[in-house]
């Protein structure tokens, strides 16, 4: 690794350092580096110097070959942008410790430290960067991006926040939740903010229940080492799904800007009542125990469903059903607001499609059968979720990053479930199904999950 100080781009502007801890891992290969290449192709990146650290005993050439092989599998990616970007990447095989990261000691200029590491290494990484004084902004801004899951439970998340705050200010800390970078998710906020009339419907008088589902057909994708530690609750529910819930529950922000949006999301999460373990269901797909690197008696859940409630006056008495799982019948992410039934018992609703399609279906009742109007919202997304995350991180826009309070409130909601799950085991469900039958048991009478088969 060469010198890391006093760099200037050919244009004369200061170089931004992007330090990726864990650049040899799956996230970097499949999501972060392709996002960087696309941004490079669109001319969105400042002059960058990328310092990659990983546990593989490679040299820079070997890392580049590994990244390039993955990029070649991505259809439509502009490889000429990769040719321009790759010259700025340097790799080092090092331990995550002050000694291992010591080549960064004399880094000068603005820098983003991105923790693309197993979550168990986050504390070590923060400590190492802090002890090397890399949070100090004497020569340019400094930020740290911490991937999810942020902590393992409430106590570990609080400890990680304390450790971060020993070295970094809150506005230097970026807790990554890539769902907040999805256009389909930002659309939700825009929809509410730009259509104040919708707010009359967006509450208990208009809505009987809310369902938030993120179903995947994918399985472990070679991530057993991580998933065996995490499971569906920590992988999807604590972060992505509770953030979606916050965007539904919150009062619209007074302005579409980071401070206002983060404050409203935090307030919404604060209003959510602590989960009751009897209203949570965990499932495991048949065959999970035979996956490579999975313990033969693993209790890890690949599906979770929960019924939650909030004290927010707007939503008092309205149940929120959240679920996510792997190897289910369909890839389908959506938020469904079920309207109150007609006197004959029929129901309309508003379905916000998040994945794979993005849009909105409004079902209303007439004399015949219910009619559905489908809309697309907004233009084709300009950037994908990780592109948005990287752009925001590099520009210092905190909007897509949950605050300390948001992550801690989300853990507070789920902590009793983690404790209850120290005993018992998940219900097995067939691959390609709607998930474990037990999810029906948490619904209130007359309520139903939206079928994944459409
Ligand atoms: N992969 C994904 O799809 C997503 C991942 N994330 C998050 O991103 C983070 C990283 O995940 P992912 O890339 O999948 O994990 P991986 O296990 O694939 O990669 C982790 C990286 O950390 C390195 N590493 C592991 N142990 C050490 C060590 N002791 N010292 C130095 N480096 C080490 C690995 O090196 P080596 O490869 O050489 O072992 C690798 O570069 C996690 O927080 C995850 O939750 C978030 C969203 C999606
Ligand atoms: O963070 C994660 O998200 C993905 C699902 O998100 P998507 O944007 O790829 O649809 C999930 O597969 C993965 O397990 C989880 O870590």
From TrEMBL:
- What's its top-level EC category? oxidoreductase
For this protein, the record's Gene3D superfamilies field holds: Dihydrodipicolinate Reductase, domain 2, NAD(P)-binding Rossmann-like Domain
Q: Which residues form a coiled coil?
A: none
Please list the reactions this protein catalyses: D-glucose 6-phosphate + NADP(+) = 6-phospho-D-glucono-1,5-lactone + NADPH + H(+)
**Which residues carry out catalysis?**
240 (proton acceptor)
Glucose-6-phosphate dehydrogenase C-terminal domain ranges (all copies): 190-443
Q: Which residues form the Glucose-6-phosphate dehydrogenase NAD-binding domain?
A: 19-187
**Which of this chain's residues are annotated to bind NADP(+)?**
55, 95-96, 148
Annotated substrate binding lies at 178, 182, 216, 235, 326
Kindly list the biological process annotations in GO that this record carries: glucose metabolic process; pentose-phosphate shunt, oxidative branch
The keyword Chaperone is annotated on this UniProt entry: no
This protein's pathway reads:
Carbohydrate degradation; pentose phosphate pathway; D-ribulose 5-phosphate from D-glucose 6-phosphate (oxidative stage): step 1/3
**What role does this protein play?**
Catalyzes the oxidation of glucose 6-phosphate to 6-phosphogluconolactone.
HAMAP family cross-referenced by the UniProt entry: G6PD (MF_00966)
Instruction: Family membership, please give it.
Output: Belongs to the glucose-6-phosphate dehydrogenase family.
Protein's name in the database: Glucose-6-phosphate 1-dehydrogenase
Question: Whose protein is this, by species?
Answer: Thermus scotoductus
